[in-house]
Protein backbone atom coordinates (compact mmCIF):
# COMPACT_ATOMS: atom_id res chain seq x y z
CA UNK A 1 0.00 0.00 0.00
CA UNK A 2 2.83 2.40 0.89
CA UNK A 3 4.56 1.58 -2.37
CA UNK A 4 1.33 2.13 -4.35
CA UNK A 5 0.74 5.52 -2.73
CA UNK A 6 4.30 6.61 -3.42
CA UNK A 7 4.20 5.58 -7.07
CA UNK A 8 0.80 7.17 -7.64
CA UNK A 9 2.04 10.43 -6.14
CA UNK A 10 5.17 10.31 -8.25
CA UNK A 11 3.31 9.56 -11.43
CA UNK A 12 0.84 12.37 -10.84
CA UNK A 13 3.41 15.00 -9.98
CA UNK A 14 5.97 14.23 -12.67
CA UNK A 15 3.50 14.78 -15.49
CA UNK A 16 2.51 18.28 -14.37
CA UNK A 17 3.70 20.94 -16.80
CA UNK A 18 4.83 24.34 -15.57
CA UNK A 19 2.98 26.89 -17.64
CA UNK A 20 4.64 29.87 -19.25
CA UNK A 21 8.18 28.84 -18.27
CA UNK A 22 9.70 29.76 -21.63
CA UNK A 23 8.73 31.82 -24.62
CA UNK A 24 8.21 29.64 -27.66
CA UNK A 25 10.68 31.62 -29.77
CA UNK A 26 13.53 31.28 -27.25
CA UNK A 27 15.83 28.23 -27.12
CA UNK A 28 15.68 26.03 -24.07
CA UNK A 29 18.93 26.67 -22.20
CA UNK A 30 20.50 23.39 -21.09
CA UNK A 31 23.03 23.11 -18.27
CA UNK A 32 25.40 20.14 -17.94
CA UNK A 33 26.54 18.96 -14.51
CA UNK A 34 29.63 16.78 -14.87
CA UNK A 35 31.35 15.72 -18.07
CA UNK A 36 33.74 12.98 -17.01
CA UNK A 37 31.22 10.89 -18.97
CA UNK A 38 31.65 11.19 -22.75
CA UNK A 39 27.90 11.19 -23.27
CA UNK A 40 27.82 14.79 -22.01
CA UNK A 41 29.84 15.75 -25.09
CA UNK A 42 27.59 13.77 -27.43
CA UNK A 43 24.33 15.30 -26.23
CA UNK A 44 25.80 18.80 -26.17
CA UNK A 45 26.70 18.24 -29.82
CA UNK A 46 23.13 17.24 -30.69
CA UNK A 47 21.62 20.33 -29.07
CA UNK A 48 24.21 22.88 -30.22
CA UNK A 49 24.42 21.71 -33.82
CA UNK A 50 23.69 24.85 -35.92
CA UNK A 51 21.92 22.61 -38.43
CA UNK A 52 19.75 20.78 -35.89
CA UNK A 53 16.29 20.02 -37.26
CA UNK A 54 12.96 18.73 -36.01
CA UNK A 55 12.76 17.87 -32.34
CA UNK A 56 16.44 18.66 -31.83
CA UNK A 57 16.03 22.26 -32.94
CA UNK A 58 15.39 24.86 -30.25
CA UNK A 59 17.77 23.71 -27.53
CA UNK A 60 21.15 25.12 -26.58
CA UNK A 61 23.71 23.95 -24.03
CA UNK A 62 24.74 27.23 -22.41
CA UNK A 63 26.76 26.20 -19.35
CA UNK A 64 28.70 23.25 -17.95
CA UNK A 65 30.08 22.58 -14.49
CA UNK A 66 32.85 19.96 -14.20
CA UNK A 67 32.63 17.77 -11.10
CA UNK A 68 35.11 15.04 -10.17
CA UNK A 69 34.94 11.82 -8.14
CA UNK A 70 37.66 10.31 -5.98
CA UNK A 71 36.04 6.91 -6.59
CA UNK A 72 37.00 7.14 -10.24
CA UNK A 73 40.77 7.56 -10.61
CA UNK A 74 40.15 8.50 -14.24
CA UNK A 75 37.50 11.14 -13.48
CA UNK A 76 39.87 14.13 -13.59
CA UNK A 77 41.68 12.80 -16.64
CA UNK A 78 38.43 12.18 -18.51
CA UNK A 79 37.13 15.65 -17.65
CA UNK A 80 40.26 17.22 -19.11
CA UNK A 81 40.04 14.96 -22.15
CA UNK A 82 36.45 15.89 -22.97
CA UNK A 83 36.71 19.58 -22.09
CA UNK A 84 38.06 20.74 -25.51
CA UNK A 85 35.31 18.86 -27.34
CA UNK A 86 32.70 20.28 -24.98
CA UNK A 87 33.88 23.86 -25.39
CA UNK A 88 35.23 24.01 -28.96
CA UNK A 89 32.72 22.11 -31.07
CA UNK A 90 30.85 24.35 -33.51
CA UNK A 91 33.19 27.26 -32.70
CA UNK A 92 35.12 27.34 -36.01
CA UNK A 93 33.96 30.47 -37.90
CA UNK A 94 35.14 28.87 -41.16
CA UNK A 95 32.96 25.80 -40.77
CA UNK A 96 30.30 25.45 -43.49
CA UNK A 97 27.97 24.04 -40.84
CA UNK A 98 27.94 27.35 -38.96
CA UNK A 99 28.73 28.12 -35.35
CA UNK A 100 26.94 27.96 -32.01
CA UNK A 101 27.18 30.30 -29.03
CA UNK A 102 30.03 29.17 -26.75
CA UNK A 103 29.35 27.00 -23.71
CA UNK A 104 30.23 28.77 -20.47
CA UNK A 105 32.37 26.79 -18.03
CA UNK A 106 31.10 27.65 -14.53
CA UNK A 107 32.59 27.22 -11.05
CA UNK A 108 29.56 26.25 -8.98
CA UNK A 109 26.14 24.67 -9.11
CA UNK A 110 24.58 28.03 -8.25
CA UNK A 111 26.21 29.59 -11.30
CA UNK A 112 25.10 26.69 -13.46
CA UNK A 113 21.47 27.10 -12.36
CA UNK A 114 21.61 30.82 -13.06
CA UNK A 115 22.59 30.13 -16.66
CA UNK A 116 20.11 27.43 -17.68
CA UNK A 117 16.45 26.44 -17.78
CA UNK A 118 16.92 22.66 -17.56
CA UNK A 119 19.72 20.37 -16.39
CA UNK A 120 21.41 17.13 -17.45
CA UNK A 121 23.60 15.33 -14.90
CA UNK A 122 26.26 13.20 -16.58
CA UNK A 123 28.74 12.76 -13.72
CA UNK A 124 29.95 9.17 -13.51
CA UNK A 125 29.65 8.60 -9.77
CA UNK A 126 26.05 7.64 -9.07
CA UNK A 127 26.60 7.92 -5.31
CA UNK A 128 26.79 11.71 -5.67
CA UNK A 129 23.65 12.15 -7.76
CA UNK A 130 21.24 12.81 -4.90
CA UNK A 131 23.51 15.54 -3.53
CA UNK A 132 23.96 17.03 -7.01
CA UNK A 133 20.30 16.78 -8.00
CA UNK A 134 18.75 18.17 -4.82
CA UNK A 135 19.42 21.88 -5.54
CA UNK A 136 18.34 21.37 -9.15
CA UNK A 137 14.99 19.88 -8.16
CA UNK A 138 14.44 22.45 -5.42
CA UNK A 139 15.07 25.17 -8.01
CA UNK A 140 12.33 23.65 -10.18
CA UNK A 141 14.64 22.96 -13.12
CA UNK A 142 13.50 19.94 -15.18
CA UNK A 143 16.18 17.28 -14.75
CA UNK A 144 17.57 14.26 -16.56
CA UNK A 145 20.25 12.06 -15.01
CA UNK A 146 22.32 9.82 -17.26
CA UNK A 147 22.64 6.27 -16.12
CA UNK A 148 22.58 5.36 -13.37
CA UNK A 149 20.05 7.62 -11.67
CA UNK A 150 21.71 6.71 -8.39
CA UNK A 151 23.76 4.00 -6.72
CA UNK A 152 21.00 2.39 -4.64
CA UNK A 153 17.28 1.80 -4.56
CA UNK A 154 17.03 4.11 -1.54
CA UNK A 155 18.74 6.98 -3.36
CA UNK A 156 16.65 6.45 -6.48
CA UNK A 157 13.45 6.59 -4.43
CA UNK A 158 14.75 9.73 -2.70
CA UNK A 159 15.28 11.44 -6.07
CA UNK A 160 11.77 10.67 -7.29
CA UNK A 161 10.24 11.59 -3.95
CA UNK A 162 11.93 15.00 -4.01
CA UNK A 163 10.86 15.49 -7.64
CA UNK A 164 7.28 14.77 -6.56
CA UNK A 165 7.48 17.08 -3.55
CA UNK A 166 8.85 19.96 -5.61
CA UNK A 167 6.67 19.25 -8.66
CA UNK A 168 9.79 19.13 -10.84
CA UNK A 169 9.81 16.83 -13.89
CA UNK A 170 12.62 14.29 -13.59
CA UNK A 171 13.64 11.02 -15.22
CA UNK A 172 16.60 8.81 -15.99
CA UNK A 173 17.44 5.99 -18.37
CA UNK A 174 20.11 4.38 -20.53
CA UNK A 175 20.34 5.35 -24.19
CA UNK A 176 19.89 1.66 -25.04
CA UNK A 177 16.18 2.00 -24.26
CA UNK A 178 15.79 4.14 -27.39
CA UNK A 179 18.06 2.22 -29.75
CA UNK A 180 15.64 1.49 -32.65
CA UNK A 181 16.61 -2.17 -32.95
CA UNK A 182 15.59 -2.73 -29.32
CA UNK A 183 12.56 -0.47 -28.84
CA UNK A 184 11.15 -1.63 -32.19
CA UNK A 185 10.88 -5.23 -31.04
CA UNK A 186 7.93 -4.72 -28.70
CA UNK A 187 5.48 -4.43 -31.62
CA UNK A 188 7.50 -6.16 -34.32
CA UNK A 189 5.11 -7.68 -36.90
CA UNK A 190 7.18 -10.85 -37.19
CA UNK A 191 7.17 -11.37 -33.41
CA UNK A 192 3.69 -10.25 -32.34
CA UNK A 193 2.90 -10.05 -28.65
CA UNK A 194 6.15 -10.44 -26.72
CA UNK A 195 6.22 -13.54 -24.52
CA UNK A 196 9.82 -13.22 -23.39
CA UNK A 197 13.35 -12.30 -24.39
CA UNK A 198 16.97 -13.22 -23.80
CA UNK A 199 19.05 -10.04 -23.54
CA UNK A 200 22.83 -9.89 -23.47
CA UNK A 201 25.52 -7.26 -23.08
CA UNK A 202 28.71 -6.29 -21.29
CA UNK A 203 29.26 -6.61 -17.54
CA UNK A 204 32.53 -5.22 -16.23
CA UNK A 205 33.42 -7.07 -12.98
CA UNK A 206 36.32 -4.67 -12.35
CA UNK A 207 34.22 -1.50 -12.38
CA UNK A 208 34.24 0.58 -9.15
CA UNK A 209 31.53 -0.10 -6.59
CA UNK A 210 29.98 3.21 -7.65
CA UNK A 211 29.40 1.48 -10.98
CA UNK A 212 27.39 -1.35 -9.42
CA UNK A 213 24.18 -0.49 -11.27
CA UNK A 214 25.94 0.71 -14.41
CA UNK A 215 27.18 -2.84 -15.08
CA UNK A 216 23.80 -4.38 -16.05
CA UNK A 217 21.73 -1.24 -16.66
CA UNK A 218 22.12 -0.92 -20.45
CA UNK A 219 20.77 -4.43 -20.95
CA UNK A 220 18.06 -4.23 -18.29
CA UNK A 221 16.76 -1.06 -19.99
CA UNK A 222 16.76 -3.05 -23.25
CA UNK A 223 14.76 -5.78 -21.51
CA UNK A 224 12.16 -3.25 -20.35
CA UNK A 225 12.00 -1.58 -23.76
CA UNK A 226 11.01 -4.98 -25.15
CA UNK A 227 8.94 -6.41 -22.27
CA UNK A 228 7.46 -3.38 -20.53
CA UNK A 229 7.24 -3.24 -16.70
CA UNK A 230 5.93 -5.97 -14.42
CA UNK A 231 8.87 -8.02 -13.09
CA UNK A 232 8.00 -9.62 -9.75
CA UNK A 233 11.02 -11.78 -8.95
CA UNK A 234 14.56 -12.41 -10.12
CA UNK A 235 17.34 -14.91 -9.62
CA UNK A 236 21.04 -14.47 -10.37
CA UNK A 237 23.63 -17.07 -11.31
CA UNK A 238 27.16 -15.68 -11.12
CA UNK A 239 30.50 -17.07 -12.30
CA UNK A 240 33.78 -15.41 -13.31
CA UNK A 241 32.63 -15.67 -16.93
CA UNK A 242 29.04 -14.39 -16.79
CA UNK A 243 26.23 -12.95 -14.71
CA UNK A 244 22.81 -14.41 -15.62
CA UNK A 245 19.49 -13.02 -14.36
CA UNK A 246 16.21 -14.89 -14.73
CA UNK A 247 13.34 -12.41 -14.42
CA UNK A 248 9.70 -13.49 -13.99
CA UNK A 249 6.86 -11.10 -14.89
CA UNK A 250 3.51 -10.85 -13.12
CA UNK A 251 1.74 -12.41 -16.13
CA UNK A 252 4.07 -15.42 -16.28
CA UNK A 253 6.38 -14.14 -19.00
CA UNK A 254 10.10 -14.72 -18.49
CA UNK A 255 13.12 -12.70 -19.59
CA UNK A 256 16.81 -13.39 -19.06
CA UNK A 257 19.91 -11.22 -19.02
CA UNK A 258 23.40 -12.51 -19.73
CA UNK A 259 26.08 -10.13 -18.48
CA UNK A 260 29.25 -10.96 -20.39
CA UNK A 261 32.41 -10.81 -18.26
CA UNK A 262 34.76 -12.68 -20.58
CA UNK A 263 35.02 -12.98 -24.35
CA UNK A 264 33.41 -10.99 -27.13
CA UNK A 265 30.88 -8.37 -26.01
CA UNK A 266 27.82 -7.44 -28.04
CA UNK A 267 24.53 -5.81 -27.05
CA UNK A 268 21.35 -7.37 -28.42
CA UNK A 269 18.59 -9.88 -27.65
CA UNK A 270 16.46 -12.73 -28.92
CA UNK A 271 12.74 -12.00 -28.69
CA UNK A 272 9.99 -14.61 -28.40
CA UNK A 273 6.43 -13.81 -29.45
CA UNK A 274 3.09 -15.38 -30.28
CA UNK A 275 3.84 -15.01 -34.01
CA UNK A 276 7.52 -15.76 -34.18
CA UNK A 277 11.04 -15.61 -32.77
CA UNK A 278 13.51 -12.99 -33.92
CA UNK A 279 16.87 -11.56 -33.04
CA UNK A 280 16.71 -7.91 -32.07
CA UNK A 281 18.77 -5.33 -33.87
CA UNK A 282 22.24 -4.44 -32.66
CA UNK A 283 22.88 -1.35 -30.59
CA UNK A 284 22.47 1.84 -32.59
CA UNK A 285 20.77 0.28 -35.59
CA UNK A 286 17.26 -0.59 -36.76
CA UNK A 287 14.96 -3.57 -36.38
CA UNK A 288 15.65 -6.76 -38.35
CA UNK A 289 13.39 -7.93 -41.15
CA UNK A 290 13.14 -11.65 -41.91
CA UNK A 291 16.11 -12.24 -39.64
CA UNK A 292 18.38 -9.75 -41.40
CA UNK A 293 19.88 -7.22 -38.99
CA UNK A 294 20.58 -3.81 -40.59
CA UNK A 295 24.09 -2.45 -40.14
CA UNK A 296 24.33 0.20 -42.88
CA UNK A 297 21.36 2.31 -41.82
CA UNK A 298 21.71 5.61 -39.97
CA UNK A 299 23.50 5.10 -36.66
CA UNK A 300 21.23 6.02 -33.74
CA UNK A 301 23.29 4.97 -30.72
CA UNK A 302 22.73 8.31 -29.00
CA UNK A 303 20.17 9.81 -31.38
CA UNK A 304 17.07 8.13 -29.99
CA UNK A 305 17.65 9.39 -26.47
CA UNK A 306 18.65 12.83 -27.78
CA UNK A 307 15.24 13.16 -29.41
CA UNK A 308 13.45 12.06 -26.23
CA UNK A 309 15.49 14.52 -24.18
CA UNK A 310 14.63 17.34 -26.56
CA UNK A 311 10.92 16.52 -26.33
CA UNK A 312 11.14 16.35 -22.54
CA UNK A 313 12.92 19.67 -22.16
CA UNK A 314 10.39 21.38 -24.42
CA UNK A 315 7.19 19.81 -23.04
CA UNK A 316 8.20 18.81 -19.48
CA UNK A 317 6.50 15.45 -20.15
CA UNK A 318 8.43 12.54 -18.63
CA UNK A 319 8.63 9.65 -21.16
CA UNK A 320 9.49 6.87 -18.68
CA UNK A 321 7.25 6.49 -15.63
CA UNK A 322 8.86 6.81 -12.22
CA UNK A 323 7.36 3.44 -11.26
CA UNK A 324 9.17 1.71 -14.14
CA UNK A 325 12.58 3.17 -13.32
CA UNK A 326 12.13 2.32 -9.64
CA UNK A 327 11.21 -1.24 -10.62
CA UNK A 328 14.38 -1.53 -12.72
CA UNK A 329 16.55 -0.48 -9.79
CA UNK A 330 14.72 -2.83 -7.44
CA UNK A 331 15.27 -5.66 -9.94
CA UNK A 332 19.02 -5.00 -10.02
CA UNK A 333 19.19 -4.83 -6.22
CA UNK A 334 17.18 -8.05 -5.93
CA UNK A 335 19.60 -9.72 -8.36
CA UNK A 336 22.50 -8.68 -6.11
CA UNK A 337 20.70 -10.23 -3.13
CA UNK A 338 19.99 -13.41 -5.11
CA UNK A 339 23.70 -13.71 -5.89
CA UNK A 340 24.40 -13.60 -2.14
CA UNK A 341 21.71 -16.27 -1.58
CA UNK A 342 23.19 -18.75 -4.08
CA UNK A 343 20.74 -17.87 -6.82
CA UNK A 344 17.48 -18.07 -4.85
CA UNK A 345 14.65 -16.03 -6.37
CA UNK A 346 14.16 -12.67 -4.68
CA UNK A 347 10.97 -10.56 -4.84
CA UNK A 348 11.30 -7.19 -6.54
CA UNK A 349 8.46 -5.19 -4.96
CA UNK A 350 9.71 -5.82 -1.41
CA UNK A 351 12.66 -3.50 -2.03
CA UNK A 352 10.31 -0.58 -2.69
CA UNK A 353 8.01 -1.11 0.28
CA UNK A 354 8.12 1.53 3.03
CA UNK A 355 10.86 3.48 1.24
Automatic annotation (TrEMBL):
The GO terms describing molecular function are: nucleotide binding
What is the annotated signal peptide range for this record? 1-24
Can you tell which superkingdom this protein's organism belongs to?
A: Bacteria
Concerning InterPro entries, the annotation shows: Gfo/Idh/MocA-like_OxRdtase_N (IPR000683), Gfo/Idh/MocA_oxidrdct_glycsds (IPR050463), NAD(P)-bd_dom_sf (IPR036291)
Query: What UniProt keywords apply to this chain's record, in alphabetical order?
Result: Signal
Residues of the Gfo/Idh/MocA-like oxidoreductase N-terminal domain: 101-170
Pfam families from the entry? GFO_IDH_MocA
SUPFAM superfamilies given in the database record: NAD(P)-binding Rossmann-fold domains (SSF51735)
Q: What is this protein called?
A: Oxidoreductase family, NAD-binding Rossmann fold
The species this protein belongs to is Lignipirellula cremea
- Source taxonomy lineage? Bacteria, Pseudomonadati, Planctomycetota, Planctomycetia, Pirellulales
Amino acid sequence: MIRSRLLLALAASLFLLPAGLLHADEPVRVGILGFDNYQAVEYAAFFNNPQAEGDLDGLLVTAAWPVLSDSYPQSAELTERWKPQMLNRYQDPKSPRGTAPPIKLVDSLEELLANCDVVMIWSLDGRKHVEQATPVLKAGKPLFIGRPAASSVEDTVALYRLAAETGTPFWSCSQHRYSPGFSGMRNHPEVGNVLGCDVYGGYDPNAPEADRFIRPLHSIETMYAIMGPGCVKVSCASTPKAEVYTCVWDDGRVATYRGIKEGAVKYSATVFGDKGVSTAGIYGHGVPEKGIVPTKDKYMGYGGLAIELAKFFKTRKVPVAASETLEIFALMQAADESREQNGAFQPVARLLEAK
